[in-house]
Structures are given as structure tokens and as C-alpha cells.
């Protein structure tokens, strides 16, 4: 799960950065406020890569997805991109958990099938 979710978050990191460049062109927004909000969101993307396997990591990821969709108020394209990344986030969590379960089953079967070092067949 970690690999899929982290890949999605790193993609979001870049999309947020590019959206900030677009938002800077809005005369009603100050450059400082755009980069403060975008910088926090970008930092959150990177930090979430490290905590995505913890229970709160997925919930924080969902909060980031909602914020990404809501950012469409400032940059309308973000409604679409936020929805795309929310779908990618769901797929990353859903299929990542399935992959983790399959890996655990495979490791368990491999451990049971291979002889241990104390087995006479191992020599």
C-alpha cells in the first residue's frame, strides 16, 4: 500500500505546485498566501508518504483529497484534477491493501514450504 499511496502523493505534490503557479496570476490573491497554502499542502504530501501505513495516514490522505477538490474554487481545473487524484487515492488504498494481504500470504506459504536451517535436508 505504501508504494501506491506514496506515488499518488508525489504526483499530487507536483500538481499542487503547478496549480500554485496558475493561482499566482489571480490579482485577488497575494503571492505569499498562495505559496503558504500550497507549500503546506506540498509538505503534507511528502510527510504523508512516511505515515501512510499508520491508521491516521489514510484519513489524512482523504483530508488532502478533499482539500484538493475544494481548491477548485481558486483554480477551476482543480475540481477535475482533485477528483482524478481522489480516485487514484481510493485505488491506491484499496488495491494496496489487497497487495499487502497477498504478500503476507505468499510470505507465510514460502516460510512453511522452505526447510529451516535445522532441517537435515538443508545441508
Written account of the structure:
This protein has 123 residues and is mainly alpha-helical. It has 4 helices and no strands. The chain is elongated, with a radius of gyration of 20 Å. The model has no long low-confidence stretch (mean pLDDT 91).
Quick recap of the structure?
This protein has 123 residues and is mostly helical. The chain has helices at residues 2-23, 31-51, 55-70, 77-113.
The sequence of SSEs as H and E is HHHH
Largest sheet: none
Number of DSSP E strands? 0
Beta-strand percent range:
under 5%
Overall shape: it is elongated
User: Over all CA atoms, what is the radius of gyration?
Assistant: 20 Å
Q: Count up the helices.
A: 4
Task: Give the low-confidence spans.
Answer: none
The quaternary organization reads as single chain
Termini gap: 37 Å
The SS-based structural class is mainly alpha
- Range of helix content: over 70%
Mean pLDDT: 91
Task: Summarize the topology.
Elements: H1 2-23, H2 31-51, H3 55-70, H4 77-113
Helix pairs in contact: 1-2, 1-4, 2-3, 3-4
Name the features.
single chain; 4 helices; 123 residues; mainly alpha
Amino acid at each position: 500500500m505504501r508504494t501506491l499511496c506514496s506515488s499518488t502523493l508525489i504526483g499530487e505534490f507536483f500538481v499542487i505546485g503547478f496549480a500554485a503557479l496558475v493561482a499566482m496570476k489571480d490579482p485577488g490573491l497575494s503571492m505569499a498566501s498562495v505559496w503558504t497554502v500550497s507549500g503546506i499542502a506540498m509538505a503534507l504530501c511528502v510527510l504523508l508518504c512516511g505515515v501512510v501505513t499508520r491508521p491516521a495516514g489514510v484519513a489524512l490522505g482523504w483530508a488532502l483529497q478533499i482539500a484538493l477538490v475544494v481548491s477548485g474554487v481558486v483554480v477551476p481545473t482543480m475540481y477535475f484534477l482533485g477528483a482524478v487524484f481522489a480516485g487514484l487515492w481510493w485505488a491506491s488504498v484499496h488495491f494496496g491493501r489487497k497487495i499487502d494481504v497477498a504478500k503476507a500470504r505468499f510470505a507465510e506459504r514460502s516460510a512453511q514450504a522452505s526447510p529451516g536451517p535445522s532441517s537435515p535436508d538443508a545441508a
